[in-house]
Amino acid sequence: MSTLNDDLKIIDAIGAAIDRDKHTSGPWIVSPPTAENPSRARVSALSGFVDIYDAPLTTETAANARLIASAPDLLASLKAMTTLMQNAAAEIDINSLRGYGGRTVWENVHHAKAVIAKAEEEQ
Fold first, then answer.
1. Statement: residue 1 has pLDDT above 70
2. In this structure, how many other beta carbons lie within 10 angstroms of the beta carbon of residue 114?
3. Would you say 104 and 34 are in contact if contact means Cβ atoms under 8 Å apart?
4. Which of 24, 41, 114, 120 has its CA 20 to 30 A from that of 69?
5. Using alpha carbons only, how large is the chain's radius of gyration in Å?
6. C-alpha 109: how far from its chain's center?
7. For 58-75, what is each residue's pLDDT tens digit?
8. Are 7 and 84 in contact (CB under 8 A)?
9. What is the pTM of this model?
10. pLDDT digits over 26-38, tens only?
11. pLDDT digits (tens, 9 = 90+) for 3-28
12. Quick one: which of 10, 48, 58 has its CA closest to 28?
């Protein structure tokens, strides 16, 4: 049986191995206002001068910027968790466990795979 530290190492390895050729590589950050654009909500990639998101600053667009900036990390975590759940299912009977939305673990794994495919345009 693996330990939490082992699982965290797996998550980090999967995150590092994500195919980043399909989108601008992360990390993405919420860019601070500049003198030229003091009232903009912007997300930029640290890998270069790429604007991922740029909108007039409102409470909603600031929240959108934070969510968008977390997208590469969310995708990596979802992939890692899906893999870990599949591996755990091989070791224990998790078919009767219920998770988010009352779905079984397997239903959540299938849902996660659909979300990953949507993010990577593999539908």
1. no
2. 12
3. no
4. 114
5. 18
6. 15
7. 889 888 899 999 888 888
8. yes
9. 0.65
10. 788 888 777 887 7
11. 545 544 544 544 444 444 567 877 88
12. 48
